[in-house]
Design goal:
With 293 residues, the protein is an alpha/beta fold. The protein is 41% helix and 19% strand. The strands form three sheets. Strands 3, 4, 5, 6, 9, 10 and 11 form a seven-stranded mixed beta sheet that branches. The protein has a two-stranded antiparallel ribbon with strand order 1-2. The chain has a two-stranded parallel sheet with strand order 7-8. Helix 5 links the parallel strand 3 and strand 4. Helix 2 crosses helix 3. The longest helix is centred in the first third of the chain and has 24 residues. The model has no long low-confidence stretch (mean pLDDT 86).
């Protein structure tokens, strides 16, 4: 660790220090990897490189967890102090920047929110957004939380910023020129794609179409509507989706709507009570403004 020519202590790989600090806090390589957008293997290699450079063991390894050694606890004090100094120095250069944490279901985040965030950032250039998917579990404490609630009565969603109306869709690969002439009863003779185990969207659609829900062509079930939409674009079957979530796919011809006059309400995206900060309230108002567009 000490350079024999200069007598100075050789610094460890500085890029490994955030991983060490987060692993010490979480006690998990998996959680550390998730926070840093890396793989657990990459985190493990970083910590091993740090230990080899220092010549000491920083963690005890268990089956599903890690814990600090005495040397690790001693070193953590200095590492956290150094990282805090760097963080404070960075913030001092950007005194007007604000961090806003938003949690939302993966489909609404990817297909609706992200394409529109540019307009928010144009009006709020000092905000650093952290968008987290609810599908990956809790991360940082959110300033704004978007949640989904089922329901078939539009009046129940007066506070929602987006009403979820479902339509039947498929890839042109599946039906070709027959798509425009397909009757609602005939759709269930083809494979149907379900985004929930209880086929909520399909059952509401069949009620609106006044046809029984008997998928004689078979079904494939997914645990998210995001996966169901991807399967639909692959030509695996007929799916259900909100027009607001497949705008690009429809525009580019990757998906087509079947029986467009049948579009029942199946739920709504709502905003939980935001944290009492000006930026959180401002982002909430920005979301609600889309309701009237």
């Amino acid at each position: 660790m000490r350079n024999p020519q200069t007598g100075r202590v050789k610094l460890p790989p500085l890029s490994t220090l955030p991983a060490f600090s987060i692993a010490a806090r979480t006690g998990s390589l998996t959680l550390t990897a998730r926070e840093l957008n890396l793989t657990p293997g990459a985190i493990s290699r970083q910590i091993k490189a740090l230990e080899e450079t220092l010549g000491v063991q920083l963690f005890h390894r268990g089956h599903n967890c890690i814990s600090l050694t005495d040397a690790g606890r001693q070193y953590l004090t200095h590492v956290n102090a150094a990282l805090a100094t760097i963080d404070n120095g960075t913030r001092a250069l950007l005194p007007d920047r604000v961090r806003l944490v938003i949690q939302a279901p993966i489909t609404i985040a990817r297909r609706w929110l992200i394409p529109r965030l540019g307009s928010y950032l144009q009006g709020n250039p000092n905000v650093d957004l952290n968008v987290q998917s609810l599908a990956l579990g809790a991360g940082d404490v959110p300033d704004v939380t978007v949640s989904y609630r089922r329901g078939s009565d539009e009046e129940r969603f007066s506070a929602a910023f987006l009403i979820d109306r479902t339509v039947a869709v498929c890839s042109p690969l599946l039906l070709g020129n027959r798509a425009k002439s397909m009757e609602s009863e005939a759709l269930l003779d083809l494979p149907v794609l379900l985004d929930t185990a209880d086929a909520w969207s399909w059952r509401r659609w069949c009620e609106a179409a006044d046809v029984p829900f008997h998928p004689s062509g078979g079904s494939i079930t997914f645990d998210t509507d995001e996966a169901s939409i991807d399967a639909c674009m692959s030509g695996l079957g007929i799916g259900q989706a909100s027009l607001s979530l497949i705008e690009r796919e429809l525009r580019e011809g990757h998906l087509i709507v079947l029986c467009p006059h049948i579009n029942p309400v199946v739920g709504g995206y709502e905003i939980a009570e935001p944290m009492p900060s000006g930026m959180a309230l401002g982002f909430t108002q920005w979301l609600l403004a889309w309701r009237d567009r």
